[in-house]
Write a structure and sequence with these properties.
The complex is a heterodimer.
Chain A: H1 6-54, H2 67-84, H3 87-106, H4 108-127
Chain B: H1 3-15, H2 20-28, H3 34-54, H4 57-73, H5 84-114, H6 119-139, H7 143-154, H8 159-166, H9 170-187
Helix pairs in contact in B: 2-3, 3-4, 3-5, 4-5, 5-6, 7-9, 8-9
The chains are: A mainly alpha, B mainly alpha.
Amino acid sequence: MKTPDITSRVMEDVITFEKKRSKRFLWGFSLLVLVLGFISLILGIQAIQNIYEFQTLDALTLLGQDREIIFGYWQEAAFILENELPWDLLIPGGMIVLGIVGLVLVTRNRRRLTQKRLQNVAKYKKKE
Amino acid sequence: MTRATHTRYTIRNHMEPLTDEQLVRAIQEGDVLSYEQLVTRYEHRLLAFAYRIVGSHEAAQEVVQDSLFAVYKTIDRIDTTRKFSSYVYEITKHAAISYLRKQHHTMTLDESVSIDGDEAMYENLGRNETQAEVRKAVLSLPQKYRDVLQLYYFDELSYEEIAKKLAVPINTIRTHVRRAKNELTKLLPYENT
């Protein structure tokens, strides 16, 4: 039987597939991190503006006072913080930040693998 | 792949060829180029195997190319404790059967467009096509089933005559014919529709 150059044809398919798959993964990952990062940044900025506007952190000046005053008024300060901090912004923002950290950790191996695959793809293209 | 693993592969590379399973592991760890070695190793064997099923060089090439690419796409899920060759042959077999099935559908459609009322010609074409497909399917069966089918259907011998000729009990012949028919039903399911 005549020997066709199947190896190079299969490798061409493999390289094209790998390039597409790796790029799709890296783009997807970067986009997700960017979008989540952007959302958490907006939430963070709004939360900080809110805190400054209501001067919520002034309650913390209590910590600079004498021990007796701290013991006398800490519950009141905690109540102010609990009521005035913008939890509706801080909780989702914090969760998104945790999500980003989790995503970065979970995809660590996959990113390493993808990077190596792309290096191999580049090596193959160079060989051609 | 860690640096230690890479070094191990590289060192081994100079000493002896890697086994299929080692190559698969290397590919799973990101070494895409190792797949070239696997393809080179299997290319000819698979071509011969696919040729036996599809009966044409061009079709066999297409089938092998498709199946080797399909193997790569699923390589991350391959269990390296099992034999890689069985997996590759299995995929190629399925690809070849799909190819034949696709061919059958394409041919049927072409014919339906071009018959122009010539029913005798259409029937003749259909019969020849079916015969060719059945012959191809028979060729892909194990030898023992193939022999029995050849004698029973093509040479038109009775069970008794086949039993005598092959020096095998008549019940074995019956079993072989039944199993061969079952295998053919799997290979040519559209024949029943």
